[in-house]
Amino acid sequence: MRTAGAPGSGPDSAADVATPIGHGDTLMQRLGLNFVLVSTMVLGPIPMMLPAVLAVDLIADLGITTGPFSLALTANTIVAALFAPLSGRITDSIGPKYSVVLTIATAGVGMFGMAFSTDVWLLMASAAFAGLGQGWCNPATNKLIAERVAAGRRGTITGLKQSGVMFGTFLSGFTLPTLAVWFGWRTAIGLYGVVALVVALGIQLWLTPDAPAEEGEEAGYGASPGAVFTVAPAQRPSVQMKVSERVFIAKITWFSLLMGGVVGGVGRFQVLFAEESLGWTNFWAGMASALAGIVAAGSRIWWARLTERRVQPASALAIQSAFTVVAMALLLAATMVHGSMMWVMSLLAGFTMMSWNAVAMLAVIIGVPVALAGRASGIVMLGFMSGLSIGGLVAGYVYEQTGSFSVIWVSFAVCAAGATVLALTMRHRRPPVF
Question: Please, which residues have CB within 8 angstroms of residue 287's CB and are 6 or more apart in sequence?
Fold first, then answer.
């Protein structure tokens, strides 16, 4: 196996291909890889956020109602869920560099389609196409970390890239209303499409090629101790998951389905609950929701770093899902005891309910061989994206039938409790961190 210091010739020499980021790398190398990972996690999911922020303008201009508009956006998460497993296999086949580039480019094309939409069907088709990038971003970035980041640094960088989703939410909410007032909603969304395509081109030109496979090399769990500059081999399709790895990934997938349902439902109805059940204004209800997002952005980094260095992923996931049960109890208490419980719930939810996916993604990266990082991530994302879609739809139906949020919060508490039990059953070896 070649190292960055090993002699070589031609385009496949060690100087021309990817090497895992280690303690000896320059600041620019680390910042560059961080930018690639974070920008992918910002631009991959952001097409789903843009129409939601500009919902009033889109609904009025396209002459549609809220129902068809919501259905059009749901197409994004449905396609993302269905495509995620395939995107993982594609990532393992073509490598993380091209996968990252295609993820961002797909999102950019989808945003252009939204900007030029003249009816709900074109909007739905564009959102669905952008869903390819939504389902691809985690397999691509997880594979990139597995191949290019040495053991001991993966926790921090995984948490950082998962925080990219929260940054994208903040960025869209902060910039889009102003851009829409200045230039109109079509130009505002189109500008994001331009940015995505420019970033995709920049990554294609700057990021070093993925390392080629070498005859006889075994696909391992990444850089080994004492060889943090080892070139990771490109992965061969012949690598198969062991039974223990299949069970491990299956449990994380079901965990992601349950917790994704909670996140999808609470995210969609927390603001409405604060307005209708607590009598809050839209401003303060939105501030409580934003607080959870701000806390999650930082806590994802903390949880992932803690998981890699001190605790098993299963233990971290069990703690996070257990405290999600407490968060649901606080939502019930907000109506029965005092509305101020909502602020406590937002803090707790940001620290646990909205941060578990950083731990789950790290568990995939360190829990399966590098060769399987893409497809394993895709399977887990199928569970998560399905949970997001199902949670929001079911919560909306329950509220429509009962007119009460209490049933929703109790149901989500049961889901989180089930996820906790599932996490406690996870047993899988992990490579040592040096």
Answer: none
